[in-house]
Write a structure and sequence with these properties.
Helices cover 81% and strands 0% of the residues. It contains three helices and no strands.
Length: 89
């Protein structure tokens, strides 16, 4: 049962990544590209977590936490830069 639910989750996540990837490549503005890249990061983290749950392993959870922190700080830095400020004060 868990394999079926995990497979459907992976399918939905993969389907969700396609428009975000398109928006990263052909976004009309830099802000759209940043939001799409943040969405891709979140989807990749979800894929890793679902795969880790299916494999009954906790090995990759620390890597997912590091990706979440780096993704958050990267998004905040680019947002501050786009607003005209310096990324790091």
């Amino acid at each position: 049962m868990i394999e079926t639910v995990a497979l459907s989750c992976l399918f939905v996540l993969g389907f969700s990544m396609v428009p975000a990837l398109y928006r990263v490549v052909r976004g009309p503005s830099v802000a759209d590209r940043v939001v799409a890249a943040d969405h891709l990061t979140t989807c990749i983290m979800a894929v890793v977590v679902v795969a880790s749950i299916v494999a009954s392993s906790r090995v990759y959870f620390d890597a997912v936490m590091a990706m979440a922190i780096l993704g958050f700080f990267g998004t905040v830095a680019v947002a501050r830069y786009l607003l005209g400020g310096r990324p790091i004060d």
